[in-house]
Amino acid sequence: MVIVRRERSDAARNRAKILSAAERIVAAHGVEGLSMAEVAAAAGVGVGTLYRRFGDRSGLAYALIDRREREFQAAFLEGPPPLGPGAEPAERVRAFLRALADRTVEQLDLLLMAETASPLARFGGAYDAYHGHLVMLIGRLRPEADAYGLADALLAPLSAELLAHRLRRCGVGGERITSALDELVSGLVR
């Protein structure tokens, strides 16, 4: 039997305040500006509370990523069409890739830190969920195609590292990236 512990209401409120404060700080100063002392002060909690709750700065960063990731996954698994169920597969793939691009750009610095933490850090939990979702949609769209390989090909341009390079060093706009992804999906439909 698994016992699920519920978070105390005061702990839940503190967690929400801490994550909101951390999001504001990252938005204003980037990941480099994310200090435990500053977050604690902005959230109105003690620094010890932050360390007990998140361990360190990277634990806090992962909590920020996780919060947004849960929202994103709920949207493509259960949300309204075209991102959620109910739309045609090609329309859902397009909506998914656009939403993933937006989601990645929104937390680019946090995801860049997370994806480059170790050699295969990008792959696993969230990537597996994205990949499985695309495999399912591509399988419906083109049953004869290698959905597994095509899903990887569609996800590759959305790595935080490549997006940061394209957006910041090459001056490529986000619309150009999503337009190219739309073209790839159009190729699948033909």
UniProtKB/TrEMBL annotation:
Residues 35-54 bind DNA. Keywords: DNA-binding. PROSITE patterns: HTH_TETR_2. Gene3D superfamilies: Tetracycline Repressor, domain 2. It comes from the Bacteria. GO terms for molecular function: DNA-binding transcription factor activity; transcription cis-regulatory region binding. The keyword DNA-binding applies. Residues 12-72 form the HTH tetR-type domain. PANTHER family: HTH-TYPE TRANSCRIPTIONAL REGULATOR RUTR, POSSIBLE TRANSCRIPTIONAL REGULATORY PROTEIN (PROBABLY TETR-FAMILY). This is TetR/AcrR family transcriptional regulator.
